[in-house]
Amino acid sequence: MSSYCHVQKQSYGWFSDSVRERAEGAALARAAAELGADNALTLTRAAHAISVLGNDVDGGAVLAERALKLNPLLDDAWYVSGWTMLIA
């Protein structure tokens, strides 16, 4: 959720140091994806942050797809999957 907070801060223009905060959010997302590899919501939030903050849409799409495989009924995963496809 910390990485997702960084996504929201960027969305609202609340970054004071964009380069540092984007890197921090992306690093948190990568760590979360590794630690929570079996948790669909964790993967969904990480996918969003990695796509938006880390400029890695392909990596985010892979995580969103993995989240959907773990829980095909998770609406947040469908939302992030749709956004990653739109960005790509």
Textual characterization of the structure:
With 88 residues, this protein is mainly α. It is built from five helices and no strands. It starts with a helix and ends with a helix.
Average pLDDT confidence is 96
What global shape is seen? globular
Biggest sheet descriptor: none
Distance between the termini: 23 Å
Number of helices: 5
Explain the layout of strands and helices.
Elements: H1 2-11, H2 18-35, H3 40-52, H4 57-70, H5 75-87
List its traits.
88 residues; mainly alpha
Summarize the structure.
By secondary structure, the protein is mostly helical. The chain contains five helices and no strands.
